[in-house]
Amino acid sequence: VQLVESGGGLVQPGGSLRLSCVASELTVSRSLMSWFRQAPGKERELVATITNIGGITNYADSVKGRFTISRDNAKNTVYLQMNSLEPEDTAMYYCYGKRLYVFPFVDYWGQGTQVTVSS
């Protein structure tokens, strides 16, 4: 299983980025998919989640109204649209998938993509 993130980069405050997570050997529509982030010196934190059943989304309070998680089942890809970016959003962003359709349930992580918000 591989989760490959892309779309990170340097953006000015108030700007936007869209992160992508392409999954191989893992069906995103049947898995719990999330985005996490980790800033230097801080613990990894959950940013957004989309469930397997119903595609229900949930967000950290710090990103509500600014970030949107979505998935494209045909492309087996999960996205994180990030708008109104703030310097506090600077972090390494990781894609996470929990396989829920085969027992045992297994957690998978991508390698991360760096997002830097700075003027």
Structure overview:
- The protein is an all-beta fold.
- It contains no helices and eleven strands.
- The strands form two sheets. Strands 2, 4, 5, 6, 9, 10 and 11 form a seven-stranded mixed beta sheet that branches. The chain has a four-stranded antiparallel beta sheet with strand order 1-3-8-7, with no helix packed on it.
- Strand 9 and strand 10 (106-109) form a beta hairpin.
- The radius of gyration is 14 Å and the shape is globular.
- The mean pLDDT is 97.
Rg over C-alpha atoms, rounded to the nearest angstrom: 14 Å
Main beta sheet: strand number and arrangement?
A: 7 strands, mixed
Number of separate helices: 0
N- to C-terminal separation?
Answer: 37 Å
- Return the string of H and E elements: EEEEEEEEEEE
Residues in helices, as a percent range: under 10%
Structural class: mainly beta
- Average residue-wise pLDDT: 97
What ranges have pLDDT less than 50 throughout 5 or more consecutive residues? none
The proportion of strand residues reads over 45%
Anisotropy-based shape: globular
Counted beta strands = 11
Features:
single chain, 119 residues, mainly beta, 7-stranded mixed β-sheet, 53% strand
Question: Topology, please?
Answer:
Elements (H helix, E strand, L loop, with lengths): L1 E5 L2 E3 L5 E8 L6 E8 L6 E6 L6 E3 L7 E6 L4 E6 L8 E9 L6 E4 L3 E5 L2
Parallel strand pairs: 2-11
Antiparallel strand pairs: 1-3, 3-8, 4-5, 4-9, 5-6, 7-8, 9-10, 9-11
